[in-house]
Amino acid sequence: MAEVIVIGGGLAGLASAAALAGSGHSVRVLESRRFLGGRATSYEIGTGENAETIDNCQHVLLRCCVNLLDFYRRLGVEDQIHFYRDFIFIEPGGRRSVLRSGVLPAPAHFLESFLTLKFLSLSEKLAVMRGIRAIKAQYKTRPDLDRITMLHWLKEERQPPRAIERFWRQILVSAISEELDATAASHGFQVFRLGLLARRDSYQMGVPSVPLGELYAEEKWKKVGPVEFLLRSPVERIVIENGAVQFVIARGQELRADHYICALPFERVPEVAPGLELDVGDFEYSPITGIHLWFDRPVIDLPHATLLDRTIQWIFNKHEGRAVQLVVSASRSLLEMPRADVIALAIRELEEFLPAAHGAKLEKAHVVKEVRAVLSAKPGLESRRPLSRTKVRNLFLAGDWTRSGWPAIMEGAVRSGYLAAEAVAEAAGQPGQFLLPDIA
Length: 440
Ligand SMILES: Cc1cc2nc3c(=O)[nH]c(=O)nc-3n(C[C@H](O)[C@H](O)[C@H](O)COP(=O)(O)OP(=O)(O)OC[C@H]3O[C@@H](n4cnc5c(N)ncnc54)[C@H](O)[C@@H]3O)c2cc1C
What we know:
This protein is of the alpha/beta class.
C-alpha cells in the first residue's frame, strides 16, 4: 500500500483521502487552518454565552450529487442531510408558489405543479416548457454549449424576459453562483438535465441538519481507514526535482510520501508548486454573501424558500424561524457595500416577503462576504481546467476548479478528489474505481 500526502483539507482533499484510506492506503492530510472543510465549513462566532457555531454560508445539494452523497456515506453522516420535496418561490408581497414532483413519471414529473406557479403567466410557462424540451434535445449533442453563455442560449430560444429572470436565473444563479451572461450554457444544461429532469427525486434539495464542520469532524474518520490530519500545517512548498515531488515543506519540516495530491484553491498552486508551471491566469472567482440574522421572534414558517425579484435569493430557517440565513450568489453588488447597509437591505427585503418580519426586533447579525467563493463558470474555460494527472509523475491535482465534469460546487470538488484518488491508486499499481457515474 502507498503512502500519500494530501495538501488541503477541503472537500476535494477529504474525498481523495476517504477513497484512498478506504482502500488501505496510508494518508496524511496537511491543512493550513485549524479545522477541516475549506470553503464548506463552520466556525464559532461570539464568546461565552453568546458563542454560536455557524456555517460560513448555507450549503445545499441536490439528490443528483451522487459522489458527494457517497462521500457522506463513507463518513457515516448521510442521515445528517435532510431532503425536501418542495421548492417554494415567494414574490414580493408574500404570494407563494410550490414546485414539487407529482404523479407523472420523469421528465414530466413537475408538470402539474409547474402549471400552478403563480409568478409566471401562461405564455411564459409555455415558453419555459419549450426551453426545457430544447435542453433535452440538445444536451450533450450541441457542440458549442461551452462557448456560448446561458443567456445567449435562452435568448436564442426566445425565452421572455420575465421567464428568464424569475425561472431560469432564479434556479441557475443559485446552483452555479454566476450570472447567466457569464455562465457557459453547458453548465446550465447540466443543472436542468440532471437536477430537474433525470429522475423524479433528483431535484430534491438536501440541507445539512448539523453545522458543516461536524460532517467531517475527525472522529468520523475512525472507520474510514488510515488517515492522519495535520491541522495548522500550511504547506509552504511542494519541491519538484527530476520530474517528481521529492518532499513538501510544512512548519519548517520536510515531509515525504510515495504520491502527493495537491487539493489547494487554484490561486495558491503557482506559489506553492512553482515547478508545476500551472497557468491559472484566466481563472476568476464569483462571490457569495451569506447574511445571518437573529430576531426576537419567529419570522418564517417554512424550512426555506427562494425569493423573487430582489437581491436576496434564498432564505433558510434556523432555530424555529427566529434565526435565518440569507444567501446571495454572484453577489458582486454587495462587495463594496458597508455591512450595516447589507443588513438594512436584508431586513427591508425580508419585510416585503414575510409578514412576520414586520416589527420583529433584530438581536444579532453577521455578514460573511466570500469574495473567493466559486470558480466563475465562464464560457471557454472547461478545456482549460486541468485534469488530475500532471506532468510531475507522483503529483496529482484535485479541487473544485479542476476538470471534474461538473461546475465548481461541492459535487465537483468530491468528484475531483475521487478522480485524483483513482489516478494515485493506478500509479500505486492497485487501480480502483471511486467515481460514481452521473444519473443520466
Ligand atoms: C459562500 C459559499 C457558498 C457555497 N454554497 C454552495 C452550495 O450551496 N452548494 C455547493 O455544492 N457548493 C457551494 N459552494 C462551493 C463549495 O463550498 C466548494 O465548491 C467546495 O467546498 C470546494 O472544495 P475544495 O476542496 O475544492 O476547495 P477548498 O474548500 O478551498 O479547500 C482547499 C483547502 O486548502 C487549504 N489550504 C490553502 N492553502 C493551503 C496550504 N498552503 N497548505 C495546506 N492547506 C492549504 C484551505 O484552508 C482549504 O481547506 C459554496 C462556496 C462558498 C464559498
